[in-house]
Amino acid sequence: MKKIKKVTLVGLGAIGTAYGSLLQDTLKDSFQVVANEERIKRYKEKGILINNQPYHFHYITPETNTDPADLVIFAVKNAELPQAIEDVQHHVGPDTIILSLLNGISSEEEIYAAFKNEHILYSMSVEIDAVRTFNEVRFTTRGRIVYGEMENSLSEDVLAVKELFEKVGIDYEISRNISHTMWWKFMINVGINQTSAVLKAPYGVFQSLPIAYEWVESAMREVVALSVKAGTGLIEEDVKKFWPIINKLSPEGKTSMLQDVEAGRKTEVEYFAGKVCELGKKYEVPTPINEQLYKMIRIIEEMEKLNK
Ligand SMILES: NC(=O)C1=CN([C@@H]2O[C@H](COP(=O)(O)OP(=O)(O)OC[C@H]3O[C@@H](n4cnc5c(N)ncnc54)[C@H](OP(=O)(O)O)[C@@H]3O)[C@@H](O)[C@H]2O)C=CC1
Ligand SMILES: CC(C)(CO)C(=O)C(=O)O
């Protein structure tokens, strides 16, 4: 059976540190974090605090030659993916398993187009409430990583990742219908990430104000309508299943998109509302709520540039 001994991570932000810290605790130097000189200097000088605990990782620059890893994990933002792909070239071999924890429904295809590697599993991180402020990351729950093969098989790669996750203590779920699960997560991000970014609202606002949560659901329903056309199986009950999840998150917790807006960073709107509007045109499905969300978030991004 395939065994994962050597793991590489690219992207030491909210998601990367949440899982990277567990990998580091068990794998020690067999766990490497790819980062350029400037980032490594910053990480070493300022340190990385995860729930108040300082962490030191084994950093490696993109130029450093090394044997391929058994597993490469991507945890960058969507717009950062092309550079991250270039930066992990030395770490991806023909047998390397790849997990992309990025939100959205396009990163796995982008990675496949670059590496033509047949070991890319579809994956995502769910029910995590990690918040990053500069070099500090805090979370009350790491949630879990849901992953699987497109043809839903319990392949050797799926089992090797399962064994690793059990060894290092990462909660996981193997999806037996990963295209449905990917779209379900996409629907959630389209709903909560975008409305929270526009309203500047942490989860507590949606937990206590029905009018705010209704807006989330109406944006999500446009994804359900697209899913019917795309054949990925979302139904109205999938919308309802998000309520118990959001209710469990810390009221102070913030979506990754709200964190981007507050930090003045570019958001992932192109991969959420942008994608919804693109698919809406393709399938001739009206997407008025996402069209407005797209405009509002793009304006917020442009206003940020004016302030710089
Ligand atoms: N935060 C959350 O709760 C959740 C986020 N997600 C998804 O996970 C993905 C990652 O999000 P999140 O962790 O919040 O993002 P962050 O912005 O917190 O982290 C991304 C990190 O990647 C680093 N990075 C970018 N490019 C490179 C590169 N080429 N080499 C090395 N490091 C790089 C950035 O470094 P630097 O800061 O130096 O640029 C940053 O530390 C996104 O797609 C997001 O939607 C999914 C579930 C929940
Ligand atoms: C589901 C949610 C909102 C939190 O895990 C997320 O994926 C994000 O913040 O990007």
Automatic annotation (TrEMBL):
Name by which UniProt lists this protein: 2-dehydropantoate 2-reductase
Similarity section: Belongs to the ketopantoate reductase family.
UniProt keywords, alphabetically: NADP, Oxidoreductase, Pantothenate biosynthesis
Chain's role: Catalyzes the NADPH-dependent reduction of ketopantoate into pantoic acid.
Name of the top EC class for this enzyme: oxidoreductase
Occurrences of domain Ketopantoate reductase C-terminal (ranges): 177-300
Native organism: Niallia oryzisoli
Pfam families noted in UniProt: ApbA, ApbA_C
All copies of domain Ketopantoate reductase N-terminal, residue ranges: 8-151
Organism ancestry: Bacteria, Bacillati, Bacillota, Bacilli, Bacillales
Pathway(s) served: Cofactor biosynthesis; (R)-pantothenate biosynthesis; (R)-pantoate from 3-methyl-2-oxobutanoate: step 2/2
InterPro entries hit by this protein: 6-PGluconate_DH-like_C_sf, 6PGD_dom2, ApbA, KPA_reductase, KPR-Related, KPR_N, NAD(P)-bd_dom_sf
EC number in record: 1.1.1.169
Catalytic activity, reaction form: (R)-pantoate + NADP(+) = 2-dehydropantoate + NADPH + H(+)
